[in-house]
């Protein structure tokens, strides 16, 4: 799996996890969803993604976007 697909899978997982936590734990977990969405939006414009840097250090092979 390339870094691009890993980032998409991680972001999708985090959104689903935040929805589950919002429903079953606390409504304040909606802010995790907001954070993930804002991070995706800013990385689309700037190309900077902290998760991509971490996954790259873990040895995930680069893709086209990151």
From TrEMBL:
Pfam families associated with the record: YgaP-like_TM
Keywords noted in UniProt: Membrane, Plasmid, Transmembrane, Transmembrane helix
Transmembrane portions of the chain: 7-25, 31-55
InterPro entries named in the record: YgaP-like_TM
Location of the Inner membrane protein YgaP-like transmembrane domain: 2-56
Domain of life: Bacteria
Protein name in the entry: DUF2892 domain-containing protein
Source organism of the structure: Paracoccus pantotrophus (Thiosphaera pantotropha)
